[in-house]
Amino acid sequence: MPNPEKIDYSKLGLKTGLEFHQRLDTHKLFCKCNSEMNEEKPVTRINRQIRPSKGEMGELDSAAAKEAAKNKRFFYDTYKESTCLVETDSEPPHEVNQEALKLALTIAKMLNCDTVDEVNFMRKTVIDGSNTTGFQRTAMIAQDGYIEKPFKLNIENIFLEEESAGVIGEIKGEKEYRLDRLGIPLVEIVTGTMQQPPEKVKEAALRIGLMLRTTGKVKRGIGTIRQDLNLSITQGNRVEIKGVQEIGMLEEIIENEVKRQLALIEVKKELNNRNTGKQDPEIKDFTQYFREEAPKFIEGTINQGGGVYGYILPKFKGILGKELLPGHRFGTELAGIAKSLDVPGIIHTDEDMAKYGIQKQIERIKTEKGLEENDSILLISEKKKKAENVLKEIKNRINQATEGIPQETRKALEDGYTQYLRPLGGRKRMYPETDIPTIKIQKKDREEAAKRVPPKPEEMKKKLIEQGISEELAKQTLSSHNLFTIIEIIAEIDVDPTLVASTLTSTIKDIGKNFQVDQLTKQHFKEVFKSLERKEFPKDALPEVIKEKTRNKDKEVSRIVEEKGLKRMSNEELKKEIKKKLKEKEELVKENPHRAFKVIVGEVMQENKGKVNGKKVSKMLKQELD
Amino acid sequence: MKYSKRIEETLQDKGIQIRDTIKIKKQRKTYEGILLPNTVMSNPECITIKLDNGYNIGINYEGVEKIEKTREKEERKQETRKTPKQNTSKPPISIISTGGTISSEVEYETGAVQPTLTAEEILAKVPEVANHAYIRNYTQVSKIASEDMNPKTWVKLAETIKKELNEGSRGVVITHGTDTMHYTAAALTFMLPNLTKPVIITGSQRSIDRGSTDAAMNLICSTISAAKSNIGEVGIVMHATMNDDHCFYIRGTKAKKMHTSRRDTFRPINNIPIAKISPEGKITKLSDHREYEDKEVTSKAAFEEKTAILKMYPGADPQIMKHYEEKNYAGYILEGTGLGHVPSNGKKTWIPTIKKAVNKGKVVVGATQCTYGRVNPNVYRNLRRLYHEAGAIPAQDMTPETAYVKLGWLLATEKNTEKVKEKMQQNLSGEVTERSTPNTYLY
Fold first, then answer.
1. Nearest 10 degrees: CA dihedral of A415, A419, A424, A428?
2. Partner of B357 for a Cys bridge, out of B100, B117, B308, B362, CB 3.0 to 4.6 A?
3. Nearest CB partner across the interface for B57, out of A47, A116, A427
4. pTM of the prediction?
5. Residue stretches of chain B with pLDDT short of 50
6. pLDDT value at position A2?
7. CB distance from B1 to chain A under 8 Å?
8. From A88, which residue of chain B is nearest by alpha-carbon distance?
């Protein structure tokens, strides 16, 4: 996004905090199911209802959200290797995964935290269906740590918890989930508050991500680490932004949120200037205006027993259409509230009514209801009860606008914007998980965790450089998902470290544009490099071998080499090739020996891709010419 | 559970009570939170506190420098539950609670699960029940987990049901722990011999305080069965599948708990369900049943507690039965292998012991641990020795559980031993079926 004026974040009093959710590369937290999420076909689909009881929902959700949650049905797909009765809430949790617990303790030590003496798993109420139990199991593991780079940043808490189920989609407003994700162990890390500009926040996030990767036991790839962002500015309010999938987006999201809050301050000023005061409009039933003629989406709702309901908002012209961010209006905020309650959107008169095809009806409403030029209309086409629910929340939001910015939880969108999710939760409703005994953390456990702490990233980099890898490549290696694959291959297999590092960083990236490299595991890469160590194919053929491997993971490297004809060419064969070329280019050799040399090397290489080594071709050609 | 003695003493010294907010200083750290009681699950040397963020943590008492109270405990607000308004024009039913997971609730702070909910509180949690019936009366006959259920409570329960049905309820819903629910269902079937009204037993595999509880749909379907069905039998109404979409009404004498933790744990054995009940109110008949009739209910509630189930297994020693004989047991269900075998040859043969007991006037019934199928007294020589020579009675296609309940009930209500033996083999209330149809296996 263009950013003409530089924002002075320190003047605005920007404060941020981060929460990381990192999936661990172990089996699931409370059962022995795998956490690979690579199964395509579900075994079966089950359906359930979650019934939030009053006490449990506590302060977490608005009355409207509670209403919306009632009588909802959820669908869950189960998978052969990654789901069992535990994920379907048909069997109590097994004992906690020791490997995950140990890893959490190691991470706690890396981040200089104090571990608790006894771990108590809790049930955190979740009503959106993303946990079949209706709660998420979570435990505090450690507190009060810090990191020193890129600046001293406190680490408040570390939790070990279970990942939720992944959303597949929705059928008629009922959510479908896949259970392969449910129960994967997550380490949550909560930082202290930073008073730093966005680029520094990003640096801190990158650092923590890097430290986690150096354990070698965290999952890699999109979605395996998520960031939540807490943010406030002095004149604004505290907002929590959930689910930033890429650290690269952090700066943009911070900037957009600051701009959004600044624009909302403008909205507040304008509302105060207009003296709109607290609005208490009554909900109006506009259905009659749409009975005779209505666009399809409204007609459909009416036919199903719904209608058109809304508010007349005096002196609101231009407010709902006010742009907070390019393409994101105050009305978009209100639509976000509707969406959070499963209503697809709202219509308001700051929009082009022709877009909906309801100019005539709106004109009639304006005339018959005696609207002033400056008044606005806001509409929802829905079932009555649902519409009323949403409209009440929208009224609250409009009134909050006269006071400033409400505290809320928002959801990060892919375009760097955010959308309303729910009011900011107070103390979350939690109660003990009585199915899991508490776990005592002994001195011995802490000592073992300390022993498992990996070297600092700087030390790792130094070691890579010592092995002959360039400074730049070492840096790339460090931030690569394949860091541990690279380190292990270098340690175990006798191949050029630089070749390993560059292949598993940049070459892989290129291949990844057209091939699914993510499917290849450490073992696959080891197999490829072992074959290279045995000189079963020339190193120039590496990309070809890897590409073929992504197509068929189980195909042995020797077979790939054979089938693709990637075998290194023997000296005699190469000599033959060169002689053939020399004959073809006889004239050129006479006319311009220098150019001919280049052309011949190029063509021999091209025609025998992966089978010959450039240096060797040059050497042999030179011998031939001499 | 209490904390260790030294912790309890320190707390007492400082006038600290459970639920007070306390501050603990240990090494360079200070912890503040609400003091929670020690639970069975945790270590008595660790003080558990609830932090401000809602998480509980344990702090080892070793090395604690200072504990102080920073705030008095707040009186716990009783969650006010609104019992839904009742519509007296709906069919009247009674709810009777006995205990079990369905009426257990977690105490949010401590996490302790206790069978505390009364039938009335359950209704407040599942208000949809009031859409289908008018709850004429709530009664609590016990507050026990299902593993502690006993014949005396069956008798009490049967008498209570009779009273409720004769005083104006069209049907009854009983909330019960699931472990021994099928024993109770069988007991009530025999103890209410002329029943022509729906008596529904239901429970849950996930406690009612959870969002994912199965109790809600089970209660709704049970209420529908009691208020609207034309079935006049004791039945278990619980989840039919893993989905929250319908329940089965399974004959009380033909049900068995088949899974430790699944919602659809109850299955019909050698039978198919009487009906399928949807929580929206639809009742689909699946097999023949006794029809509903508004007739007076009579009871015949008694049980001979000196009745036992003995399991047969390789190496089972007949001394086990001799021990019971010394205690003068009146009747036995032998949970035999296969078609109803007991070890019959060599040193550990049970045949002589059984014969002796029968000759002394005891009733010995052979059932099968196969779960499905019928006992056969003729096919093998050893079967003929047991059922023809030694005088054991085959349990037909009754589960050992149903056979046990039937025998205990017959022994208490029938003076003549020969009559007991005769009735054991007859079908009194749907517990014995004459035809074994293929569709009943693994239903």
1. -80
2. B362
3. A116
4. 0.88
5. none
6. 42
7. no
8. B242
Q: Which amino acid makes up residue B90? A: K
pLDDT band at A118 (very low <50, low <70, confident <90, very high): very high
Evaluate whether ipTM surpasses 0.90: yes
Name all domains of chain B by residue range, CATH numbers in brackets: 5-71 (2.30.30.520), 92-285 (3.40.50.1170), 307-425 (3.40.50.40)
Q: What angle do CA B141, B130, A343 make, to 5 degrees?
A: 135
Condensed to tens digits (0 to 9), the pLDDT of residues A521-571 reads 889 999 999 999 988 888 888 888 999 999 888 888 888 888 887 777 778
User: Looking at the DSSP assignment, which residues form a beta bridge with residue A34?
Assistant: none
- Alpha-carbon dihedral angle through residues A436, A441, A447, A448, given to the nearest 10 degrees: -10
Question: Could you give the count of Cα atoms lying within 13 Å of A413 in the half-sphere of its Cβ?
Answer: 11
For residue B221, the model assigns a pLDDT of: 98
A-chain residues near B4 (CB < 8 A): none
Scanning A96-125 for CB atoms below 8 A from B yields 114, 116-120, 122, 124-125
Q: Enter the tokens of residue A516.
A: 């699914």
Query: How many residues are present in chain B?
Result: 443
pLDDT digits (tens, 9 = 90+) for A297-326: 999 999 999 999 999 999 999 999 999 999
What pLDDT is recorded for position A554? 86
Segment 574-603 of chain A within 8 Å of chain B by CB: none
Fold of A278-401: Gyrase A; domain 2 (3.30.1360)
Distance CA A561, CA A537 (A): 7
Q: Tell me if A431 and B108 make a contact (CB, 8 A cut-off).
A: yes
CB B96 within 8 A of CB B161: yes
Contact yes or no for A541/A506 (Cβ under 8 A): no
Cα B265 from Cα A132, distance rounded (Å): 18
Q: CB–CB of B111 and A434 under 8 A?
A: yes
Taking the C-alpha atoms of residue B432 and residue B425, their distance in angstroms, rounded to an integer, is: 8
Q: 3-state class of B364 per DSSP?
A: strand
The answer, yes or no, to whether residue A181 has pLDDT greater than 50, is yes
CB contact under 8 A, A438 and B58: yes
Domain extent listing, chain A: 9-28+95-163+184-271, 278-401, 455-564, 571-625
d(CA B362, CA B342): 17
Contact state of A436 with B245 under an 8 Å Cβ cutoff: no
Residues of A whose CB is below 8 A from B205: 90
The reply to whether residue B112 touches residue A54, judged by beta carbons under 8 angstroms, is no
The position carrying tokens 């976000």 is: A336
Give all strands (DSSP E) within B157-312, no chain letters. 171-175, 199-202, 234-239, 247-251, 255-257, 266-268, 275-277, 283-285, 307-311
| Burial degree of A6 (CB within 10 A; 0-12, 13-18, 19+) | exposed
Tell which A residues from 428 to 447 touch B, by Cβ distance under 8 Å.
428-434, 436-438, 440
Q: Minimal Cα–Cα distance from B327 to chain A, Å?
A: 40
User: Based on the number of CB atoms within 10 Å of its own CB, is A463 exposed (0-12), middle (13-18) or buried (19 or more)?
Assistant: middle
Give the Cβ contact number of residue B192 at 10 Å.
26
Which residues of chain B neighbour A141 with C-beta distances below 8 Å?
Answer: none
Lowest mean pLDDT among A201-215, A429-443, B268-282: A429-443
SS3 assignment, position A369: coil
In 10 A of CB A304, how many CB atoms? 9
Identify the H or E element spanning B121.
helix B119-125
Distance of CA A139 to the CA centre of its chain: 23
Q: Which residues of B are tagged catalytic? A: 101, 178-179, 257
pLDDT bracket for residue A56 (50, 70, 90): very low
DSSP string, A283-294: PEE-GGGGSSS-
- Interface list for B 69-88 with A (CB within 8 A): 79, 81
Q: Supply the DSSP symbol for B341.
A: B
